Amino acid sequence: MKNYLxxxxxxxxxxxxxGEDTQKVLNAGADxxxxxxxxxxxxxxxxxxxxxxxxxRDYGIMAPIDVHLMxxxxxxxxxxxxxxGASNISIxxxxxxxxxRSLQLIKDHGCTAGIVLNPATPLNCxxxxxxxxxxxxxxxxxxxxxGQSFIPHTLSKIKQVRERIDQIGRDIRLEIDGxxxxxxxxxxxxxxxxxxxxxxxxxxxxxxxxxxxxxxxxLAM
Length: 221
Ligand code: DX5
Ligand code: ZN
Hints:
This protein has 221 residues and is an alpha/beta fold. It has helices spanning 18-27, 50-59, 77-83, 99-108, 154-168, 185-191, 200-203, 208-220, and strands at residues 5-8, 33-38, 65-70, 88-91, 112-117, 135-139, 173-177, 195-198. One of its GO terms (cellular component) is cytoplasm.
C-alpha cells in the first residue's frame, strides 16, 4: 500500500462538468476520489446521490471512489452506493441506530468500511468496531460544507487514534477530512494521518497538479 493517499473532494469540483473535472484531478496525480453525500437532514446541505457515482463510473472514472455518507438514516443507501461503484463507504455513528450492523452491511456489499468521527464525537465510539473498519476518518471541520478552517484540536485526536491503530496492529487507514491545505498537511501527517481529503485547496486553485505536487512535497519532508 502506498503510504500517503491524496483524495480530492469533488464537493468543490465544477458540478456542471463533474466527469471532466474528476478526470482532470486524477490526471493531476490524485489517488482517490472523495465523494461527499449530504442529505439536508444529518447535515445542512444537499449534494449528490448514487446516480452521480454511477455516472462517474460510466464516464470512465477508474480510481477508487471514497463515499462519505453524511445522511441519516444511512442503511438504505449502502447497497445502492455499492452497486453504483463505491469502493469505500464511510458512515457517521450518529447516523445509524446499529453501527455494527451498518458496517457489516458495507462489507457484505463488497466495499471497504469507514467510520467518521466529527470534531466533538468521542473516541470511545471506536471501542467495539475496530475489527470491522478499514478506515477511520476524523473530521477536521464540522461536516456540511467545504472551505472551512481546520479545527486545531483535531491534531491531538489524530495522535490518539494513531496510537490505537498501532497498538492493535491492523492496517487501518487514518483519513482526515476538512480544512486540509498545503500549509498544514505535513503537521497532520506527523500526527499520524496517512490519507488526506482536500476540496477547496485543490479545486479552488487554477492548476490542480501544482497543489497536489506541493502537498506531496510537504509529505516527503
Ligand atoms: C465536509 C466534507 C469535506 C469537504 C472538505 O463536510 O466532508 O469532504 O468537502 O472540503 P475542504 O477541503 O474545502 O475543507
Ligand atoms: Zn467528506
